Amino acid sequence: MDARLLFTAATSSVFLYRFLAKKSAREIESLETAFGPARVVHSARDIDSELWTRAFAGHCKDHRYYEIAEQTLGEQFDHRYLILENRTTGEVAIQPLFFVRQDLLVGLPPKIRAALGWPRKLLPGWLQMRMLMVGCSAGEGALDGAQPWVAAALHEALALFAKQSNASMVLLKDFPSTYREQLIPFSSNGYRRAPSMPACALDLDFKSFDEFMQKKLSHAFRKNLRRKFKKLGQHAPLTMEVLTDATPVLDEIYPLYQQTLARSTMRFEELTKDFLARIGREMPDRARFFIWRQNGKAVAFALCMVHDGTIHDLNIGLDYAVALDLHLYFVTWRDVVQWAIDQGLQRYYTAPLNYDPKLHLRMELAPLDLYAWHTSPLINPIFKRVLNLLQPARHDPVIRQFPNAHEL
Predict the structure, then answer these.
(1) Are 199 and 342 in contact (CB under 8 A)?
(2) Which ranges in the chain are annotated with CATH 3.40.630.30?
(3) Which terminus of the chain is more solvent-facing, meaning fewer CB atoms within 10 Å of its CB: N or C?
(4) Residues whose CB is less than 8 angstroms from the CB of residue 181 and which lie 6 or more positions away in sequence, other chains included
(5) Domain 3-198+367-407 sits in which CATH superfamily?
(6) Strand order in the sheet with 347-350
(7) Could you list the pLDDT tens digit for every one of the 408 residues in the chain?
(8) How many whole angstroms separate alpha carbon 118 and alpha carbon 132?
(9) What's the CATH number of domain 200-365, 3.90.1300.10, 3.40.30.10, 3.40.630.30, 3.40.50.1390?
(10) Is 357 helix (H, G, I), strand (E, B) or coil?
(11) Does an H or E element contain 13, and which?
């Protein structure tokens, strides 16, 4: 790809955006698709309560999770909700949206960042776009309904709303690969599907962690793990407790989350204390906080959610003053998996990143997809080609070693 061509395209995008931004910023909340009316609201409070409580029924992250994210992460994201109606059937689907200004070079290898980022010397906003994102600001995306009309109506409505809101790009964020067929109206009509950083999963088809190590792990890694766990005997013992409501211990565990977040090379959202408190209080049927202590002091925690036979491992926090000596990553993983087995759960599912230990622990990739569309008809064809380079998942050498990496 000719770098001068990319530079010219980006320059045009900046001038186009500035021109549109001078126009009225008033959002037109009433839209019309071939299937029926659609409207955009600013808060879950503006949605009919009966409709809202049915939204995302059957998903681990149901309507409660989206509302908590909206109300506790509002300083990071500008949330919206698109309400789609089917005039013929009377069906209604609700799709969470949010606006964010995103740096497209985040997560890329340094050499590629340098190759694509040099125009920022003249244009500081190069490859930083105001995006209209579709999905969840604190997790994977999902559609509220499996009927074919939902994706088709969503495709139409997003094009209209993106134009009215002056968004440079529309991005469907982190949709599991199981949606690929349903989202064909996007991938075949203007949008480019690209791999996001994948999640990972493991079937819990064993009776104990010891059986897992014996049957699933290589001899070398099993020996390495046993050595790590044996060394724990040289330190004060660790204890674990499982809570639904973490409010009483937030001041202890939130600094652990911040330590772990600070060490991450890729980050999107930053959870707040209020988010962690409300997840436990408002979703007690699903939220589980695992907390490990040494001499009474919290040294690690994990936020998980339990739903439909699966434990979803969402976030972790470690005290890095002791994390390496105590091998806390492996200790916490072992204990969460053993707890899940004891509860009769059948599957372990974990958020993206940190792939090396997951590879050795014999997890499989759970592909997540992005669907991207630049709102400029002149730039979109070029952007779809550039998007092949703007995919951190393709540049991670560990991801390519997973047996099912081809599924990305």
Answers:
(1) no
(2) 3-198+367-407, 200-365
(3) N
(4) none
(5) Gcn5-related N-acetyltransferase (GNAT) (3.40.630.30)
(6) 238-243, 287-294, 297-307, 310-318, 347-350, 199-203, 364-366
(7) 333 333 333 333 333 333 333 333 344 478 999 999 999 999 999 999 999 999 999 999 999 999 999 999 999 999 999 999 999 999 999 999 999 876 665 655 666 666 666 665 665 556 666 789 999 999 999 999 999 999 999 999 999 999 999 898 899 999 999 999 999 999 999 999 999 999 999 999 999 999 999 999 999 999 999 999 999 999 999 999 999 999 999 999 999 999 999 998 777 899 999 999 999 999 999 999 999 999 999 999 999 999 999 999 999 999 999 999 999 999 999 999 999 999 999 999 999 999 999 999 999 999 999 999 999 999 899 888 888 777 778 888 999 999 999 999
(8) 25
(9) 3.40.630.30
(10) helix
(11) helix 3-21
Q: Which two tokens stand for residue 292?
A: 């490990």
Q: For residues 351 and 315, is the Cβ–Cβ distance under 8 A? A: yes
Please name every residue paired with 287 in a beta bridge, in sequence order, or none if there are none.
305
Nearest to 351 by CA among 264, 221, 262: 264
**Which residue blocks in 291-401 are alpha helix, DSSP H?**
323-326, 328-342, 355-360, 380-386
Q: At what angle do helices 328-342 and 219-231 cross, to 10 degrees?
A: 100
Please tell me what DSSP assigns to residue 167: -
**pTM attached to this predicted model:** 0.87
Encoded tokens for 79 = 């949330």
- Give the closest residue to 195 by CA, choosing from 171, 169, 168, 177: 177
- What residue ranges in 62-198 does DSSP mark as E strands? 78-85, 92-103, 128-134, 169-176, 192-195
Can you spell out the DSSP letters for 60-81? SS-HHHHHHHHHHSTTT-EEEE
Closest CA to 370 of 174, 185, 177, 237: 174
Burial environment of residue 242 by CB neighbours within 10 A (0 to 12, 13 to 18, 19 or more): middle
Q: State how far the Cα of 226 lies from the Cα of 231, in Å rounded to an integer.
A: 9
Question: Token digits for 26?
Answer: 């008033």
